[in-house]
Amino acid sequence: MAATRVIAGAGSATSCLLLKTPFSFKQRLSRNALRFNYEKVLPSKRLFACNALYRPEVQVKEDGQPETLDYRVFFVDNSGKKVSPWHDIPLYAADGLLNFIVEIPKESSAKMEVATDEPYTPIKQDTKKGKLRYYPYNINWNYGLLPQTWEDPSLANSDVEGALGDNDPVDVVEIGERQRKIGEVLKVKPLAALAMIDEGELDWKIVTISVDDPKASLVNGIDDVEKHFPGTLTAIRDWFRDYKIPDGKPANKFGLGNKAANEEYARKVIKETHESWSKLVLRKIPGVELSLA
């Protein structure tokens, strides 16, 4: 069965780095408005096109059965045209907020991710040696990506032991109380950043909270996280440090003194990776085996 959810945008204007011109949109549904029906999506291909235009209503459609190799979650606009959650949903929302795309709902273990090498970059379950991947235990927060970001594997970060980017969009940990749905688009505040080093690659984890969470008005930075979500930053770091150990792999490491950086530093990381993404889609940087459609 294929569930369709309509996600409404918030705010009044944003800008497109590719077009170099501002554009506006009107909010036509409330932020939490969802509509469910069922529809199958047939795979298709298109030539390179990445306009990075905001679609006020983005429908999330499933193709195939969950927990199978063929399962995909596609994003389509009002006309039914496929769009990329990585390239076509804007990073920035109104009032300094960010758009966050949920890949893995909290308290679940299937390792879902945007397929960066497939046309329209749908969400799928990751595989290893032809088998579906699962975390050894549930992740305790909503997890996903920031659209229009990219960790450049040719760029060495002098702040983090010269580590190179992991060739993926920037990861997000959303600490709110609600379990979200795969493909849901949330408006979030960036609160902190953790510099995870996974097998020598830099894999940022941006800690956020959705603006519709009951505690969102109380939490605007790293100090507020410690006050209203005590122990959460340490728990996030330890979870990502240790999750590969049950599979016989070493613990992941963290830069920046093994501590979370504040919200200002998080925004710096986001800005830099957004600039790297814009260079990628303008083909100023080679992106090996990445889909730019």
Automatic annotation (TrEMBL):
Protein keywords: Hydrolase, Magnesium, Metal-binding
EC number(s) on file: 3.6.1.1
GO terms assigned for molecular function: inorganic diphosphate phosphatase activity; magnesium ion binding
InterPro entries per the UniProt record, alphabetical: Pyrophosphatase, Pyrophosphatase_sf
Gene3D superfamilies: Inorganic pyrophosphatase
Catalytic activity, reaction form: diphosphate + H2O = 2 phosphate + H(+)
Pfam families found in the cross-reference section: Pyrophosphatase
Family under the similarity heading: Belongs to the PPase family.
Record protein name field: inorganic diphosphatase
Species whose genome carries this gene: Tripterygium wilfordii
